[in-house]
Structure formats: structure tokens, C-alpha cells
Design a protein that fits this description.
The complex is a heterodimer of chains A (299) and B (615).
Chain A lengths: L2 H32 L6 H17 L4 H24 L14 H21 L17 E4 L2 E4 H23 L1 H11 L1 H6 L4 H23 L10 H14 L5 H21 L6 H13 L9 H4 L1
Antiparallel strand pairs in A: 1-2
Chain B lengths: L17 H13 L7 H26 L7 H18 L4 H25 L3 H20 L1 H4 L5 E2 L12 H25 L1 H11 L1 H6 L4 H27 L1 E2 L6 H14 L6 H18 L4 H15 L3 H17 L22 H4 L14 E10 L2 E11 L4 E5 L6 H9 L6 E6 L2 E2 L5 H6 L2 E4 L11 H6 L8 H9 L6 H13 L15 H14 L4 E5 L7 H16 L3 E5 L3 H7 L2 E6 L2 E6 L1 H5 L2 H8 L6
Parallel strand pairs in B: 5-10, 5-11, 8-9, 9-10
Antiparallel strand pairs in B: 1-2, 3-4, 3-6, 6-7, 11-12
The chains are: A mainly alpha (299), B alpha/beta (615).
Chain lengths: 299, 615
């Protein structure tokens, strides 16, 4: 592999890795507080990507369109908790009890996929670029032609991950989330509205999915079926980080994206499967994830 | 019952259900000869092999509580395994189907290895990913599978009757379903199902009654995958065409829908669920555009409104119907008046005269030598030694956070000691896992009470009783209409009688008061024929009268040769029951001796009342 190719492959991997991190952080934050995740997290991303596509076709200015996508997805996160997750708390004693949320959130994902298929068709679509004037604008770095969009997606994702960390560890809200994660009853005694936090994390997770959906548009083609594979990869990235350590998720997501990009380059047929298999082996050997030990420090 | 001269009440009999089988077999034999549309025969075939796969998932998820969102992957392994070997290697179809089943079982066993160390979300994620990977491989390895264009001309299953292949296929797939249903019913009713249910309840609990949790989990995964593979193999030979489109995650979701809609963990659930699923599929065929929407809506509606599924709905309707005519005739009476006002303990000391059927002759001591345990730098237990003499009751006391639970959990094997050793008699337990320790004669009860909620009190006690026959001889007894585990049931019933619990034998634990459930747990521990019994807060949450009754039971157990170590906060109880007592504070042993010595030990008084307190 030439240096130029290598840099191209790395930049593509970093961009996808950044997307995985954003989606996985959404899974992390709900798992931390409720021990549940949205099995349609990837489908929420897909909805975000298609909504942006729609708004821009309607010639709504980019900034306004992005804000609208974030708001709509935030509402969807709230609805998800209200409709598909919270009501299950009263049915814990049934046999399926502990797993109901997996199936209800997957059910919502199927519905979303179907709705988008009905509205946009089943075929893949190109989303307009966010930052540059045309989709394949290239900048030269070390003799390699890199897509401007990819670089800016990476930069944007890094900024948002930074914001997320600031929110989680330095804001009052973030501390409330940590407190509920540590012990919901004790948090309630401290005056934290545990139920609000529990719905809040699903809203935050949906907003993260929306951000990822906005960013992913220009770097891949989007189709209504893309949600499942993104959910799987995000789950795996979160598991590599032990579901408990956002720094582990950041490293895991980027490694996953880069590994995937390289293995796709080497084997165009089955390249995307190798990182999945490798991650499954890692989880089998070390179920608590590669970076779980640090969770104590992070908390 | 022939032996009820011994007992005041007879051991409750298991309900017999041979009639439905006979009826099903009669209809099944007749069906192909009736003048009906070939399409219905095709539908019936589809029902048979789909129900086989769903039955496997029902055992996995409903009985053992292990989630799989990737059953379509094993279904695909069975389908390709059988289609390829019969098509490309010319193997006879029965042999190729067997091969497909084995490949699927192997795949399931491999995923079971993941299941050994993970559970819940991780397991769901792993199975989802494995199913996805197998789906993609099927799509893209076109030279082998033909991808979406598929393999056509897969030999049909005609057993040498090519003109009657539809009928032959009907009989073979239907016959297989009947066998699978028999096997699943046997698993449901026998010790196999009990152990799986214990694993679902809690893995630590299952291990502490001697179940080798890892092997059981791997085995149930392999078995469920084998059934999915059998379904897939039949699918491949039904129409002679196998295309990769059939094995997407949508199929895995379909199996889950059938399992949940039918009634998770019930015997008839998979059959009902498969019927409903096929009806949905037929309806969707016309409006495929809305297929996913309908699937998703069904998942939401069933889980939110009818989490017990069709079998549950039918069951409660039947109960309501029955309740009108013959009140309380059912084995399980859910009406409120059936729940006793007071616990069984109230009348305990006088009500039983029967001796415990378990008498330990080999008296055993427990020797804990300078064990320590740290949690990330904090020393929870520091060089503690405890000697429990054979056939005595030893109490372990101390303020909250003194390390009592950590010690009990190290003795039971849940935590490994950082240093030190634990001996039961001459046996070194230090490096053994929970189940091995349990099987060597170490039984325990839990602070937060562990029972299988969904099965009767008698079945809970049976969980502890040693298995007297092999599974195959059990199966023969069961299928020939004999009483399954008759001897074990008598023994379990005798233990319930000793505890004055005989009248609750066929109740569910959830219908009984807390004190009675605690006693059932103790009965289950005794059923394990322990040499050594660990009791973690045996009277927590009980009233004075119940506590006195428990004290008398514990003293009686000592008279039967059982050595006991107990942790308890109630001082009056500890002082009246224990022969010797160890006192812990901040992870260190501060005193050891008879109750009288402990009561006068200044260090103990200080630990409990605080420094500077006046006597």
C-alpha cells in the first residue's frame, strides 16, 4: 500500500470510526443509567439522515434543517421511552420481562425502517455535502487526495465527543446522570428526578444518533436498511469499551473504523466482517471489554 | 397413590396429557388422505419445520432465559449444510439433514461458549452479530451458496417414493415435530427443565444447588441451534430452492415473534405462536410493503399488552371458565382466599412428627484458615480463621460491613479468597467452583431468598434432591406413562412434611408469605443432603414467633448430623442457637468462643456499642 493510499484509507476509517463512537455513546449513556439500550439506535440515525435529505430537498437552509432534525429525533427519543420502554417496568414479573425492551425497541426500529421505505423508496440515495460545495471535493495532504467532507466529519465528531465529555463530567446534568447510574434510590434521596434522568438519557442518545445521521450523509450512501448494521457495530464498539467507559468507547470506535477501512481495502468481498469477528473474539475472551478497568477512574 | 398410608396428604400427581398427543397424531396421519388442496399440505409442512425451530428458541429463551436474536443463522447453517451435501456431494437426504443439524449444533455450541461468560445484553448482541455475519456470508459467498440467486434443484425428501414426495415430506417433518414436542415436554417436566429454570433465575443460585452452569448453557444453546438447523434443513428440501434472502434478521425476529406471541416458556406456546406467525406471513404476502411495520407493531402490542402470549390468554380464559363451575379445582389456585393468612411456621413445632429422611452419618467440620479478600485496595476480610466443629452450630456476627457476607461467599465459592484455604473435612475446597463445592455437601440459603418462582414448592425442593436415574431411563418412564421421578418426589415430599409445608406442595412460591418461602428455601437446601449448611440471615424479615420456630428447626437439623454456619444480626437468636460464635469487625476476627464468653468480651461490646460506651 502506498503512503497516499494508506492516508486515504486511514481518513475514511477515522470518519466511520467517529460515526460509530457517536452512535455507541448513545448506547453507553442509556445503558449506564437504565441498563437498557435502543436496539434501533442505528435506525434512529437512518431516520436523521433521511430527514436531513428531505429538508434540504425542500430548500430549507442547512442550519435550520440540522436543528429541525435534532429536535425531531429528541422528541422521538422521548416517545421511545414513553411508549416502548417505560411501560415495561410494570411487567417485570413476566418471563420475557428482562428482555422485553430489546424486542420493543427492535419493533420500533422495524416500523421506522418501513416508514422511511414507504416515503423514500428502498434504494440508496446520495445526501448533499455539508461543508463543501460538491460531494467529492478533494484536498491534498502528504500527496494523498482526501475528501474534504471526511476530514470535516472527523473534526465535527471530535468536537461533539468533546462536548459530550464536558457535559457528562463537568455539568450538573452529567453529574445527575452519574448519580442515577450509581444508585437510583440514593440519587432520588438527593433530590434528583430519577425518572427525568431516565427519559433524558434516551433523548440524549437520540440526539447523538441524529448528529451521526447528519454527519454520515455525505460520506456514504444512505438507505432505509442501513440501521441494523450500524446498531450491531455500535453495540460492539460499546462492548469493547465495556459499556462503562467513554474513553474506551472512543478508542474502540476509532480502532474499529480504521480496522474496517483497512480490511475493506485488502478484501473487498468480506472485509467488513473481519472487524466484527475480531471484536466478538475479544468479547468472548474478555467479556468486560478491553478498557473496562478504567471505569473506576472515569467515574 | 398407593403409599398414602404413610402420609397425611399424597404427593401431588403430575397431570397426564396423553390425549392431546393421540388426537394430534390421528389428525396428522389422516390429513394427507383427505381431499384437500395441495397448498394446505404445503402450509402444514411449513408449520411443522417452523414450529421445530420455534420450539428450540422457546426452550432457550423461555426455560433457560438466554436471549438469541440470531436463530436465523443456525437455520441457514442447517439449510445450506443439508442442501449442499445432498446437491453437490450426492449424499442421501436423511444423511444430509443430519449433517445440517450437526453443523447448526456446532455453531450453536460455539455461540454457547460466548454465553458462558456473557449474558443479557452482551449475549443478545453476540447472537445478533453472529446471525448477521452468517447472513452476509450466505449472500456473498456466491460460488458456494449461489447468494440471492440461490441453489436450485436441491433433492427432495422422498425416501424412494418420488411420486409421493409431498406426502413423505409431510410425514417426516410432522413426525419430527411430534418427536421434538415430546422431547420439549419431557425437558419441561423433568429435572432438565428444573435446572434450566434455576439458571434463568440466577446462575449463582443454580451453581449453589450443584448445577454445572457452563455445560448446561452451552448444551441448551447447541440444542436450540440444532432444532433451528433441523427446521432449516427441512426448509431446504421442501421446494428444492435455497436463496440467501430467506435468512435475514427478519427471520430471527419472526422466530422471536412466534415464541413470544405463542406464550414464552409454555408447552403449547411454540405451536400456537407458529400458527399465528404463518397467518401473519400469509396476510403480509399481499401487502409486503407494510411487512416490517406489521412485525414491529405486533412486537409492541404483544409485549405491552399480552406479555404472556396466546397460551397465557387461553390459560386465563380457561381458568375464568373453570372458576365459574368448579371453584378451586385446579392444581394452582390463584384466588385470594387460597393464600394462607399466617405462614406455615406458626404451627410448626407440634405439627410434624415425621423424622427427616436425611440423616448424615459422616459428620464434617469446616476449617477456614486465614483467608483474606480485597476489593480494589480495600481489605474486606483480613486473615480470618474460623473453625466449625463437626455437628455444631457456629454463628458469624459483626456490625454491618464487618465482612460476614464476603466470608460466606468465599466459603460457597462465589468469591475466590486472595489468600488462605478452606477445608470441608479433609477436602480442600479452595480452588473448586461453586457447583463442585455444592456437590461435595455444602448447601446454602441466600440473604435475599432464592427460589424458582414459576414452579411448585415441591419442584423447588426437587431441585436439591440427587437424581437417582439417568435421563434416558427417566424419559422411558415418562413416555410409557409412569410417574416421572417418583422416588425423588416422595423424598421431597417427606422433607416438606418435616418442615410442616406438605399442604403447600403444589403451590407456587409467589403465592406464599415471606416466612414460608424462607422455610421452603431451607427445605431445598436440606434436600441437597448437606454435610455443611451455610445460612445467610435465616430469620431476616421474620416475626418473633417465626424466628423461634426456625431456631427449633435449626437445632433439629443439628440433631440429624448437619454442621451449620450461620450469619445473623438478631443477637437473641444467635445466642440461643449457636454452640460457638466468631465475631468480626472491619474485616478482622476480634473474638471467638461460646455465647457466654462472647457476651462478656469487652472488645465485642465495644465493637457493637462504640468506643467510650458504659456498660
Amino acid at each position: 500500500m502506498e503512503l497516499g493510499n494508506l492516508i486515504q484509507v486511514l481518513s475514511g476509517g477515522l470518519a466511520m470510526g467517529a460515526i460509530y463512537v457517536l452512535v455507541a455513546l448513545g448506547l453507553y449513556i442509556t445503558h449506564l443509567t437504565t441498563h437498557r439500550v435502543n436496539f434501533g439506535q442505528g435506525d434512529f440515525l437512518m431516520v436523521g439522515a433521511f430527514l436531513l435529505l428531505l429538508f434540504r430537498k425542500l430548500d430549507i437552509p442547512l442550519g435550520l434543517a440540522v436543528v429541525a432534525v435534532l429536535v425531531i429525533l429528541a422528541v422521538m427519543g422521548w416517545l421511545l421511552d414513553r411508549v416502548a420502554i417505560r411501560p415495561l417496568d410494570r411487567k417485570k414479573d413476566t418471563l420475557i420481562g428482562a428482555y422485553s425492551w430489546m424486542l420493543t425497541t427492535a419493533g420500533v426500529a422495524l416500523i421506522l425502517q418501513n416508514v422511511i421505505e414507504l416515503g423514500f423508496g428502498k434504494t440508496s440515495q446520495y445526501s448533499a455535502p455539508l461543508f463543501s460545495s460538491k460531494r467529492d471535493e478533494v484536498v491534498q495532504v502528504l500527496g494523498a487526495g482526501l475528501f474534504l467532507e471526511e476530514i470535516l466529519v472527523i473534526v465535527a465528531a471530535v468536537l461533539i465527543v468533546g462536548l459530550f465529555y464536558g457535559f457528562m463530567f463537568h455539568s450538573r446534568w452529567g453529574k445527575a446522570i452519574q448519580a442515577v447510574a450509581f444508585n437510583p434510590e440514593a440519587a432520588m434521596l438527593l433530590g434528583i428526578h430519577t425518572n427525568r434522568v431516565k427519559v433524558g438519557v434516551f433523548v440524549i442518545a437520540s440526539i447523538l444518533a441524529a448528529v451521526a445521521g447528519v454527519l454520515i450523509g455525505p460520506i456514504v450512501t444512505i438507505n432505509p436498511q442501513m440501521g441494523l448494521v450500524l446498531t450491531i457495530k455500535a453495540l460492539i464498539v460499546a462492548a469493547i469499551g465495556g459499556f462503562a467507559n467513554p474513553v474506551g468507547i472512543l478508542i474502540g470506535g476509532i480502532l474499529f473504523g480504521v480496522f474496517e477501512s483497512i480490511s475493506n481495502y485488502v478484501d473487498s468481498g468480506f472485509g467488513d466482517l473481519y472487524p466484527l469477528l475480531a471484536a466478538l473474539v475479544i468479547i468472548a475472551i474478555k467479556p468486560s471489554g478491553l478498557f473496562s478497568e478504567r471505569s473506576a477512574d472515569v467515574r | 397413590m398407593s403409599d398414602n398410608t404413610l402420609h397425611v396428604r399424597a404427593v401431588p400427581a403430575r397431570p397426564s396429557n396423553r390425549l392431546p398427543y393421540a388426537l394430534a397424531i390421528a389428525i396428522f396421519l389422516l390429513l394427507p388422505w383427505l381431499p384437500i388442496n395441495g397448498f394446505f399440505i404445503f402450509l402444514a409442512q411449513t408449520f411443522f419445520y417452523t414450529a421445530i425451530a420455534v420450539t428450540g428458541l422457546n426452550l432457550l429463551l423461555g426455560l433457560s432465559g438466554q436471549m438469541s436474536i440470531g436463530q436465523a443463522g443456525f437455520y441457514a447453517l442447517g439449510a445450506y449444510g443439508s442442501a449442499l451435501t445432498s446437491l453437490k456431494l450426492g449424499w442421501p437426504v436423511p444423511l444430509s439433514i443430519t449433517f445440517g443439524v450437526l453443523i447448526a449444533a456446532l455453531g450453536g455450541g460455539l455461540v454457547g461458549v460466548f454465553a458462558l461468560r456473557t449474558r443479557g445484553l452482551y449475549l443478545a448482541m453476540t447472537t445478533l452479530a453472529v446471525g448477521y455475519i452468517l447472513d452476509i456470508v450466505g449472500q456473498r459467498w456466491i460460488s458456494l451458496t449461489g447468494g440471492a440467486m440461490g441453489l436450485s434443484g436441491v433433492p427432495s425428501l422422498d425416501l424412494g417414493f418420488p411420486k409421493m414426495s409431498a406426502t413423505v415430506f409431510f410425514y417426516v417433518s410432522g413426525g419430527s415435530l411430534i418427536l421434538v414436542q415430546l422431547l420439549a415436554d419431557f425437558i419441561n417436566q423433568s429435572r432438565l427443565g428444573r435446572n434450566l429454570r434455576a439458571i434463568r433465575e440466577s446462575e449463582v443460585f443454580a451453581a449453589s444447588v450443584g448445577v454445572d452452569v457452563s455445560s448446561w448453557k452451552a448444551a441448551i444453546f447447541a440444542f436450540a441451534a440444532a432444532l433451528a438447523g433441523l427446521g432449516g434443513a427441512f426448509f431446504a428440501h421442501q421446494s428444492g430452492f435455497v436463496g440467501s434472502d430467506a435468512f435475514s434478521v427478519r427471520l430471527s425476529i419472526s422466530f422471536l415473534i412466534a415464541t413470544v406471541v405463542g406464550g414464552l416458556g409454555t408447552k403449547t406456546g411454540p405451536l400456537l405462536g407458529t400458527l399465528i406467525l404463518l397467518a401473519i406471513v400469509e396476510v403480509i404476502a399481499g401487502i409486503d410493503k407494510y411487512g416490517l411495520l406489521i412485525y414491529g407493531a405486533i412486537l409492541l402490542i404483544v409485549l405491552l399488552a399480552f406479555p404472556k402470549g396466546a397460551a397465557g390468554v387461553i390459560g386465563s380464559l380457561a381458568q375464568r371458565f373453570k372458576g365459574g363451575s368448579t371453584a378451586g379445582a385446579g392444581a394452582i389456585d390463584r384466588s385470594d382466599k387460597g393464600i394462607p393468612e399466617t405462614s406455615a411456621l406458626a404451627g410448626l413445632p407440634t405439627s410434624h412428627t415425621s423424622a427427616l429422611p436425611v440423616q448424615q452419618t459422616a459428620l464434617t467440620s469446616l476449617s477456614v484458615q486465614s483467608i483474606s479478600k480485597s476489593y480494589s485496595g480495600l481489605k474486606a476480610v483480613d486473615q480470618v480463621s474460623v473453625e466449625v466443629m463437626p455437628n455444631t452450630i457456629h454463628g458469624l456476627i459483626g456490625p454491618n460491613g464487618a465482612g460476614k457476607s464476603t466470608i460466606i461467599n468465599m466459603i460457597a465459592g462465589i468469591y475466590r479468597a486472595d489468600e488462605g484455604s478452606i477445608h470441608l473435612g479433609d477436602l480442600d475446597l479452595s480452588s473448586l467452583d461453586i457447583a463442585k463445592r455444592a456437590n461435595l455437601g455444602l448447601a446454602r440459603t441466600f440473604q435475599n431468598l432464592q427460589l424458582i418462582e414459576g414452579v411448585s414448592v415441591l419442584d423447588n425442593v426437587l431441585l436439591g434432591i440427587a437424581h437417582k436415574h439417568s435421563y434416558s431411563s427417566d424419559f422411558v418412564t415418562w413416555i410409557s406413562g409412569g410417574e416421572l421421578e417418583g422416588d425423588e418426589r416422595k423424598e421431597a415430599f417427606a422433607i416438606l412434611e418435616f418442615f410442616g409445608l406438605a399442604q403447600f406442595a403444589d403451590r407456587l412460591p409467589t403465592q406464599l408469605p415471606y416466612g414460608t418461602r424462607k422455610l421452603i428455601e431451607l427445605a431445598r437446601a436440606i434436600a441437597q443432603r448437606p454435610k455443611m449448611l451455610l445460612l445467610d440471615e435465616p430469620i431476616a424479615g421474620m416475626n418473633t414467633q417465626e424466628a423461634k420456630a426456625i431456631a427449633q428447626v435449626i437445632i433439629k437439623l443439628r440433631a440429624h448430623g448437619i454442621t451449620i454456619l450461620l450469619v445473623e444480626h438478631n443477637m437473641e437468636f444467635v445466642m440461643s442457637v449457636c454452640d460457638t460464635i466468631s465475631v468480626l469487625n472491619f474485616g478482622k476476627l476480634i473474638a471467638c468462643g461460646t455465647p457466654a464468653e462472647i457476651q462478656n468480651n469487652p472488645e465485642v461490646i465495644e465493637a457493637y456499642l462504640g468506643t467510650g460506651a458504659k456498660k
